[in-house]
Amino acid sequence: MNASTIKAGVMGWPISHSCSPRLHGYWLARYGIDGTYEALAVTPDDLSEQLGSLRDRGFAGVNLTVPHKEAALEVVTSLNPTARAIGAVNTVVVGADGNLAGDNTDGFGFLENLRQDAAGWSADTGPAVVLGAGGAARAICHALAMAGAPEIRIVNRTLARAEALAEDLTGPLSPWSWDDRGAALAGAALVVNTTILGMVGQDPLDLDLASLPTEAVVNDIVYAPLETPLLAAAARRGNPVVDGLGMLLHQARPGFEAWFGRTPEVTPALRAHVLGSNP
Ligand code: ATR
Fold this sequence. Notes:
Blueprint: E1 6-12, H1 20-30, E2 35-41, H2 47-52, E3 59-64, E4 78-79, H3 81-86, E5 91-94, E6 100-103, H4 106-117, E7 128-131, H5 135-146, E8 152-156, H6 159-168, E9 173-177, E10 190-193, E11 217-220, H7 229-236, E12 241-242, H8 245-251, H9 253-260, H10 268-275
Parallel strand pairs: 1-2, 1-3, 4-6, 7-8, 7-10, 8-9, 10-11, 11-12
Antiparallel strand pairs: 3-5, 5-6
Helix pairs in contact: 4-5, 4-8
The chain binds 2'-monophosphoadenosine-5'-diphosphate (ATR).
The site of 2'-monophosphoadenosine-5'-diphosphate has 14 residues, from helix 5.
């Protein structure tokens, strides 16, 4: 590393599970950029100091992961409208004057993944059904609303959380109870699972797909396993399916571009590399 090496990284606690160093490391090598991307173990108590000293330590910026995304709202010096609406920051860019600009690229990553992998789908195609009402659902609902979805049905086990989300964001959002999740699929153009159901070690998502049009796109943001029971069931009845790895890869693009000055691509080789099958 020399003085011109551009530095970036990801702050989290714990951080060892993060795929981001592998992902950005692939792009740095692929494009021959003199840069580094480190995993940074940062406790909640240290977040403010660690972000505040980025410029002095020569960092162009960082990604933030659990548990720092919400706390960073109070630390960055500016928030773009997306991060403000979502109420979480996952990308920080250090400005020339040392200011810290906070962005949230999760919704961007979600939409770009569908644009790349669900041919013919666009947000205005028809109603979207979002299962779950946590942080990921919030970013996804915001992105769908901004992209012109005509109706967004938020289905959540705890109805009050779906109601709060529908109330908080601007757009054609409606809360649905968990018991009505099968009925919520009628006439939908898109279904997204943002709950933990279907993840390795969790129960599968119990969802009757009978009411779902066969042309509706089914997306799971769970990516371990890549083919969740939901995606397998949807594929069996002929629905187009999109797995969750792409959202993770696409959400990384704006940060990489801002820090390293190159628009990176999401390719099959990148997917294989991040999955560990292509070291
Ligand atoms: P994130 O911020 O990653 O989206 P989260 O805030 O923990 O994570 O949200 C997890 C989602 O999975 C929530 O919508 C949660 O439902 P509740 O709001 O009712 O907790 C949902 N979830 C978790 N376990 C579930 C289960 N067994 N059945 C149905 N939904 C479940």
